[in-house]
């Protein structure tokens, strides 16, 4: 009798889990479920593109500053470096 109750409870539990899982999958396959997952994917893609463009802009500004400094376009061309007077030796 105990074995039959155990297997009955096991069957009911597994059946309930299968029904819940199948219901979740069926919900995802409805037009509304597909639209929500598609919309979430587009939002993630948009965030990723926004982050990527921000990183590219930062790198571009940094490289442009390096190029301006290297070519003298930053206004330092023709400037003489400040010479420090040597410290007197004791």
Characterization of the model:
76% of the residues lie in helices and 0% in strands. It starts with a helix and ends in a 19-residue tail after the last helix. It contains 2 helices and no strands. The chain has 90 residues and is mainly alpha-helical.
Keywords:
90 residues; mainly alpha; 0% strand; elongated
Q: The biggest beta sheet, please?
A: none
Number of domains: 1
**What's the β-strand tally?**
0
Specify the number of helices. 2
The helix-and-strand class reads: mainly alpha
Q: Could you give the distance between the termini?
A: 106 Å
Helix content: over 70%
Strand content: under 5%
| Low-pLDDT stretches | none
**Can you give the mean pLDDT?**
86
What would you report as the Rg, rounded to the nearest angstrom? 34 Å
Could you give the order of the helices and strands? Answer: HH
Shape: elongated
Task: Explain briefly what this protein structure is.
This protein has one domain (2-71).
Secondary structure: elements and pairs:
Layout: H1 2-28, H2 31-71
């Amino acid at each position: 009798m105990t074995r039959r109750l155990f297997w009955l409870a096991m069957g009911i539990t597994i059946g309930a889990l299968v029904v819940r899982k199948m219901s979740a999958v069926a919900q995802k396959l409805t037009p509304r479920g597909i639209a929500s997952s598609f919309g979430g994917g587009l939002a993630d893609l948009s965030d990723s593109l926004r982050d990527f463009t921000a990183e590219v802009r930062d790198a571009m500004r940094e490289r442009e500053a390096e190029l301006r400094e290297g070519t003298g376009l930053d206004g330092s061309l023709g400037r003489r470096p400040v010479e420090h007077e040597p410290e007197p030796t004791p």
